[in-house]
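step: validate -> pass
step: tokenize input -> pass
step: predict -> running
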Amino acid sequence: MCDLHDPNEHSHEATAASGLSRRQIVQLLGAAGIATTAVTATAEPAVAATADSTVGVTEADAAAYTPPEGLAEDSAAKRTALAWIEQNVSRITDLNDEIWEHAELSLREWNSSLAQADFLRKAGFDIEFGTAGFPTAFTATYRRGKGGPVIGFSGEYDALPGLSQKAGAGEHDPREYVHDPFSPGYGPGHGCGHCALGTAAAAAAAAVAEAARRHRLDVTVKFFGSTAEEQLIGKTYAVSQGVYDGLDAFLDWHPSTGNATGWGTSNAMTAITFTFLGVAGHGGTPLGNKSALDAAVMMASMSEFLREESMGPSARLHWVINNGGDIPNVTPEIAQISYYVREGSVERVNSLLEKVIAVSEAAARASRTSVQHKITSACWNQLPSKAFAELMYDNMRQIGPPEFSAEAQRLAKELQKSLGLPELGLHDKISELAPPNPVFLGGGSTDVADISWQVPTVSMGAALAPIGTKMHTWSTASCAGSAPGHAAVRAAAKYLAATAVDLLVKPELLRGIKEEFDKRREGVRWRTALPEGYEPPMYEPPAWFLKRTGQSWPPKNITWPPRRVVSKEKFSSLGPALQPQT
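step: predict -> pass
step: emit ->
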């Protein structure tokens, strides 16, 4: 999830480590690193809850693990749901391609959110825009009968900056090129495949609704169109506002390089932006100027020294200077550097975050600038569900991997050749379900994690990108809007819909999933990792969008316009003037 957490990551890690004992893992990582992880798991309930031992699974059980069979049922309702997907494949892939074409950035998905909402409205859902105050977030609801379970699906539709790419092109060929003579670049693109993510989830929700209608199943199906996943803002804030309360189960997926599910966890994360303020001046007469960019560069350099002694095996720290000035001949008066601080739990994130903040203060002092910081997002580590993953896996196994055409495999191999990778094509198998590593080594983060502490949640991945590539690349954007993406959307919709229908026709499965969820959460009190008084960032929507969605501006939960950031710094003193030389 993208900054995303790849749901396959832990399954692949587990497969790789399945032959290792804990002693071997200790030797592999080094005693100091593993000791830190072990102490954390013992001391922190949020970390302990992710361990299988929490639900009575021993190390011996994990070593001898075989996925159960017979969980997924070949019911009439499931056949109806899967048939609906097949009958509407053209509509579904058209929706994917429409969102791919828009390639709209986080918090500004005006056309993409409307397209997804219209798809669900035609499937009989009631639509309400402005979820948690976000203009492009919406909740779609279908109800049939009374007293049935409430099943949630996760939808996303934001693109990434700089990843524009022509659909189906085997070499880097940006669809939108920025012809700036001083700063050329590329437009946005779906390098994380969220066009496919939201489309497949919407198709699954619609298919479940159709099955409920045809077979008179009591259910409430809720689809959450979520904004700004790439900034990990939309869901984390919405959870803090109670948007996901009352659900019985939540189904999530993400495009990937493999077809897998699992019950591993993810990194907690805090996103923070530091703003340095100095004094502008002519670059040809720099004495006395205060460069905010110097401060940002100092901070970036100093934060790298945290890696050896302040970061455990599960920690991640990465940054980008997102405002460094405009022209060399003007000393930058304002500069901003943004960090993602990741660790295995919120508490460990906070420990590392304190050190990063201290580095910012040191950089400001050394450069004689001032600094302020703002947390833009923060999320928990994901709470896994073994029982839910086992049900999802059984459905994936029965349905089979995505059906990739010769055209899709050809494109994948062209992309691999272009990137200097083995030409293995697309993953055309279902990866074996295996326990996660006994030691969490860190990785990505997801705003679905906060949802997972409110309701039993399952995540899975379907292959959209070629083997060996990664999300957040132009090559993924090429696949997302062409044959590989179409096959992944079709398969993912079926996996999600089939698993959801099983919860309706076999209520004992849902009971077991909820029992595991309650057991894992014992002794853990979830509270949002967002700071007190947090106001989510937003962009003012165009008037036509507000009219189409029946919203007014601004929402009640933000201050508009936001507080201005203006430097009040003074030129730096050089001390007493020098006497003329004689």
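step: describe -> The first helix runs from residue 9 to 17.
step: cleanup -> pass
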